[in-house]
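User: Could you walk me through two proteins back to back? I'd like the raw sequence and the structure tokens for each, with a short line separating them so I can tell where one ends and the next begins.

Assistant: Of course. Protein one, sequence then structure:
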Amino acid sequence: MRIFVWTLYDFANTSFSIIVVTFLFAIYFTETIAEKSPAADFYWSLGTSISMLITACIAPVLGAIADYSAGKKRFLLVFTLLCIICTSLLYFTGAGDVKTALILFILANIGFEAGLIFYDAFLSEITEAKNYGRVSGYGFAMGYFGSLTTLAIVFPFLQNDLIRETLPVSALFFFIFAIPFFLFLKEKRVKRVPEKSYVKIGFERVFFTFKNLKNYRNLSMFLLSYFFFVEGINTVIYFSGIFAKKTLGFSNLELIVFFITVQSTAILGSIIFGIYADSHGQKKTLMITLFVWVITIIFAFFVETKELFYGVGLLAGSAMGSSQSISRSLMAKLTPENKKTEFFGFYSFFGKSSAILGPLVFGVLSTITGSQRIAILSVLFFFAAGIFVLSKVNDKPDLSAE
């Protein structure tokens, strides 16, 4: 029951990811709000990069504060509501409202991404280490099932060209299905009486962890690897819909079919690779998924037709959910038990800070060259670097600094 309630939050929050970040609002922003400006890709990449920069800066401190105060659930609620409210307000943006739309999107994305710090840190509370891979996979699979459900709900809106109306629908979906998490999932709380402000405690603990990162070699190397390969994943997420629309001429309805394809294989990939990881090791399984990403990017560069791009979607889906879920379970395995949320703050820091550079590089290259195909090649570097650094990681917990 605890695992199901935990995964239900993944089911809820992916309504924001698929509608706002990956698909409908991303296209609505570049085509309607930015009025198909040559700089539209750059504006979108700027919004994603700023939101990720802010999240990256606050993530480690938030994690440390939550560890000390045992307040993961409370922090998650605040950021969840921030995302839901700002997503709803995006409904009121239209042609020319670039600045307003970017501010609201930045706030909503901060709410979404910062909330994941606290959500991810619950993994070690709901299951044993030997099951991290499959349980993390269940969460991502449930998330992609949530994406499929959201797409089914908004399909009639798309048929009637009601793009803006999907934004409050996404917010409502997130709100309704996140409720069970806050009502029924109990947090393992440790009562402490702080001698100083939580913010000061947070900064002190973060500084101490940074100072002692050399004692967590596996963890440090994994975080560096994660920084690189999630750079590529985030760039694909933020620009896949725009690429399909602008470069290959997909209609909105064709994009629905495409993303249903992606989400379906993502569900299977998350479950299958999650189970495989528990039996054969997270590192080995993660390596496999990253090589699938490399093949996917090369395939996408050469694709000229819509039909072949569905093949890209099948590959991307199988690697997308599995690489992220296995990363989360490997992170949980390598992290000392008494610093789970703090280190998941660093996990988020590396993930969010990586999402600053990748989308920005894509947006700048696309704007300068006028070709999204050239821009997509930049993603290969990030996956190659991630694979190289990951090869140096030992698939064992860091215990020396506990």
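----
Protein two, same layout:
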Amino acid sequence: MFGRVKPLDAILATAEKKSLHRSLGAFQLTMLGVGAVIGTGIFVLTAEAAQKAGPGMMISFIIAGFVCAVAALCYAEMASMVPVSGSAYTYSYAVMGELIAWMVGWALILEYAVAAGAVSVGWSGYVVGLIENAFSIDIPDLLVRGPYDGGLVNLPAMLIAGLVTWLLVIGTKESATVNAVLVAIKVSALTLFIILALPVMNMEKFEPFAPLGFGGIGAAAASIFFAYVGFDAVSTAAEETKNPQRNMPIGLIGSLAICTVFYLLVAAGVIGSVGAQPQMANGIGLEPGSAELTAQCAAIADQAVVCSKEALAWTLREIGWPQIGNLVGLAAGLALPSVILMMMFGQTRIFFVMSRDGLLPASFSKIHPRYNTPHVITIITGVFVALFAAFFPVGLLANISNSGTLFAFAAVSIAVLVIRRREPGRHRPFRTPAIYLTSPLAFLGCAYLFYKLDEKSQLLFVIWAVVGLVVYYAYSRSRSHVGRGLVEVHEADADAPPQPVPPID
């Protein structure tokens, strides 16, 4: 079960054989991380967190950020030691064997595809709100919300998923250039929100601080964790990084630190200016994205931040800045597609390396003759992302995505400890500090957040994992290159994907 380990030296030799152009420095990696991290989590899930924890979501951000920080430290050692594409999948293959690696890769597929769907839904909320407020029109909910959320189909979310798929198919150079501009727009919008919201803070709005107790704070942390995922997408660009042993850890931890500061300031601005008390029935908080919450919000004419699909823009309109609110809505509408792009980008690269290892069909790594991109798997991914976005609410998608992410992070936190004990002499440009404390903390933190997810998300993850095991034993195990003894460097392994992320000027 754990016998098929892909030797680290073979993984590194394959990376050298591919000879991808290394062009990304620490600053570019940090910007990529910020671009992948800041998105739906803070723009949209602020309302979800408020419904679960009230003002206590400040603690939720800290809990989720801490778990991500210790996981990032584990990631940083593995990413600097194994600077190849594939993220947690590749690290697990080198340390814990093929079956665990397959399950991690399978979980990452769930993470990236569903997360891209969640961001698409978040984008839809802001764009619809912007159009309705700017032009004083009312767009029917049937066409802009999924069936769980009081509508029929979310057409704008499907549209943006399709557009991003097209962009990735025609070439990733354009994608990276667009990403650089949109990171600046996102950060500017959040900075403007903080400048306008913090001065009107009222400390009375923070009472009661935890209306649903610490259980609500933990549940909000499990959802808010989505606001931090994306930094692992940085490690999928390891093969294009100059001096990865130095720059990967800086990119991972630097982007996380920047985002955490933004998140706490934005959350404080929302709570202190308009309040963030959850909608309740019989003393119990209503589930975000549920028909019950939709009905109760309709009864109060959506006059609560927890009812909003565009929390930050709504908050600015409420405190007397309607045009700035529209501007933040526009910024979200422009910027969130960059997060969808990074998620789908990471998804296709995970597929690519799994295909290269023989665990998935070779056609998945087929390169378009004109655009030089993995078009087959990009289009397949795009179709599923569009379907997720069309029919499911953002909170449910975020939680399902979190389940896959937490599994992958937990695997890396174990892998870094195992490889430290097994190969203590291997060169480690970055060493995780206090490894015997950091690694168990990362694992236990991931386990706690998974436990605090809603039952639907946990059940769907278990079903996904079972399907993954069936696929592995029915198809992948017998076709695995490692299983067939093909661990040396082959010409077939030199088929590099297009260089994903050119330098950001």
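The beta strands are 280-281, 284-285.

Let me know if you want the two compared in more detail.
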